[in-house]
Amino acid sequence: MEEIGINEIAKKMTREEFLSYIKYEELCPSAFGRKDLDMCAFGAVDNKVCKNCITRMIENIKFKGEDDMAINQELWNEFLNGKIAVNCQTGDEIYSFLDYCNNQNLKWYNGNTAKEALCYDHKSLTCYKFDTNGLQYSNTYYYKNKNIKIITYQQLITSTENKKIKLYYGDEILTMIRKGEIKRGQKFNIYYNGKKIIGQIFKWNGIELYNKPDGDNLNLKIQDIVNNQLQFQIIEKEYMTFDEARKLGKPRHKIYGYDYLNSKFAIEQFINEMDKKVWEVED
């Protein structure tokens, strides 16, 4: 069977179904044209050598369902901040979740990459949590007792048909800047070789993109933006009511700016706008 065969199979089977299939049929990578992998001398699907070959064979294959999802960014940020735990109820969900964690450069508390251990000891009750020490896992009862909010993996993912992250290359960003479509203060997430750079948000200041992680400036000048390894996600501004904004700083109207502070802004107009989500706070 040619290697393309596994890609065709992957369109029809989930990863869990495929692993069950090759175990039942006692197949190894040689059946899929993978002559480059170490062959299992004993022909036993369950021995360690063959398991390693199978893992290597499918590590870059996208199976059914794995390309039809995107992450709910709000919930993902809560996960990164240690506020929630994610309950994965099947082997497929665990693999997909840890694969995503791996792509985001998250590691286990012992320093291993996210994909080095699936940690499915608690079966359908398995939960994952993240904090400054890294990834950890336990069961739903443990996190409930710790008063940690638990969400399911299905709650974390959303269909790409409804919410797909739009990424732009540097030349596209520069074109939008020249057209005035990107204003001073616009924020971006940056992806390097398809992977999001965690914890670093860049802002356009009219001259360059800059960031200040841990007090140090990281600047991307115009010549750095046009880099085929970099892609940019435009972060949409989240507006709030006047009272919500006031708790964070000096409120600014998305259209009128600070004009509401002077006589140009009628009191009646200000009152009408107060409870609308049209306010922001300048960083």
The proportion of strand residues reads: 15-25%
Count of folded domains: 4
Principal-axes shape call: globular
Number of helical elements? 11
Low-confidence stretches: 41-47, 159-163
Spatial ordering of strands, largest sheet: 7-12-8-9-10-11
Distance between the termini: 58 Å
Strand count, sense and closure of the main sheet?
Answer: 6 strands, antiparallel
Radius of gyration: 24 Å
| Percent helix range | 25-40%
Overview of the structural elements:
This protein has four domains: about 5-60, no CATH class; about 70-160, no CATH class; about 170-235, no CATH class; about 240-280, no CATH class. It is built from eleven helices and 14 strands. The protein has helices spanning about 5-10, 15-25, 50-60, 75-80, 90-105, 140-145, 155, 170-180, 220-225, 240-245, 265-275; strands at about 70, 85, 125-130, 135-140, 150, 155-160, 170, 185-190, 195-205, 210, 220, 230-235, 250-255, 280. It has a six-stranded antiparallel sheet. A four-stranded mixed sheet has the order 4-3-2-5. The N and C termini lie far apart (about 60 Å).
